Amino acid sequence: MNPFWHKLFGRLKDLPGDAPRSPGLALLAALATAAAAGYGLGARARRGLYRRGLLRVRRLPAPVWSVGNLTVGGTGKTPVTACLARHLQNRGRRVAILSRGYGGDCRSVTRISDGSSLYARPPAVGEEAYLLARSLPGVAVYTGASRYEAGMAAWRDLKPDLFLLDDGFQHFQLYRDLDLVLLDAAAPFGNGALLPRGPLREPASALAAAQVLILTRFLGGRDDATPLNLKKAFPAKTVLTAAILPVVARHYPRGGESAPGTLAGLPLYAFAGLARPRLFADTLAGLGVDLKGFQAFPDHHRFSLEELEGLVRQARDRQAAALITTAKDWARLGEQWDQEPPLWVLEVEARLPEVDRLWGFLS
User: Fold this and answer.
1) pLDDT digits (tens, 9 = 90+) for 176-199
2) What letter does residue 240 receive in the DSSP assignment?
3) Shortest CA distance to 136 belongs to which of 57, 66, 80, 199?
4) How far apart are the two ends of the chain, measured CA to CA in Å?
């Protein structure tokens, strides 16, 4: 998305219905509200056509668990998918992950990993699918616009016991045995509005089609009431919580690895291209980083040489000892950094304390 529109719709999504606004923003909000009404009709109609069997749904030869969300980006699908894959491996399952591969150049079915070797990297493939492949030895990762074709390719090659469908709640073309939907614990439905007025891909009523709801970025105390409220709204659903935690900080160009606590007090300049870059800034603040500046880019952004040079200048001008970014942005950088100041890369993982409640869904 163009940076201008990225920022503009970011403002719209965060704007409460009763917030004061300029005439221009008020007009844009009204237009976005009207567009959201039309979008909602289309989203309901599309799901209904598949539910009634009027559009074709295909099945893969092994069970499919979908990890999806109701909002646009930022709920932690990649770390939760990785967490589930590890737990399933520990239970003796041969897992293959199927992803659309958003952000990559390849449009056809692509084998990123067979569980033992990596065959593709960004920008040929999306950084999220690549990170899953790189961090999950023994787990195959295939991408393609048609997750059915990607799944059949994985089946021919490896005969997995179970497919994990990354970002699959709206991929109705493929039958799922289990739908797990992620919701941010702090704001499960964002501002409550559909695209483009808000972050919702579908109305909240679409959760009726899911079996499991997972509240991500759950913080005890602050968020304790959220699972109870969600369970009241959807009593038939299994409601779980997940934490997404920083686990390691890597230093480049030397390539050293440190505990995230090492970053406390360090004067750093941060940048990230994420759906919700503010979450990265909040994580750094929680680690005690002395943040000298933060530059946000659109989700899946590919950095130009000029942009990287600008980031380096900003870091120097603000007397930062180093820059810091996310693992996703590091993948888009080609996992290379030979400039001064140096670069820290912060990696996160998901924790599902009640994951055992999912094993009843295994066939």
Assistant:
1) 999 999 999 999 998 889 988 888
2) E
3) 80
4) 41
Domain 246-348 has CATH 3.40.50: yes
Domain boundaries, the chain: 64-241, 246-348
- CA torsion through residues 272, 278, 280, 286, sign: positive
Q: What are the tens digits of pLDDT across the range 236-281?
A: 999 999 999 999 999 999 889 999 999 999 999 999 999 889 999 9
- H-run or E-run covering 100: none
Rounded to whole angstroms, the Cα distance separating 173 from 160 reads 20
What CA–CA distance (Å, rounded) separates 152 from 154? 5
Residues in the chain: 363
Which is nearest to 168 in space by CA: 77, 36, 235? 77
Please give the Cα distance from 332 to 301 (Å, whole number).
8
Average pLDDT taken over every residue of the chain: 92
Q: Which pLDDT score is estimated for 12? A: 64
| One-letter identity of residue 215 | L
Instruction: Order the strands of the 267-273 sheet from edge to edge.
Output: 256-258, 243-252, 343-351, 322-326, 267-273, 290-297
pTM of the predicted protein model: 0.92
Check whether 1 has a pLDDT greater than 50.
no
Same fold across 64-241 and 246-348: yes
Task: Report whether CATH 3.40.1180.10 matches the domain 64-241.
Answer: no
Confidence of residue 32 (pLDDT cuts 50, 70, 90): confident
Tell me, what amino acid is at 50? Y
168 and 70 Cβ atoms separated by less than 8 Å: no
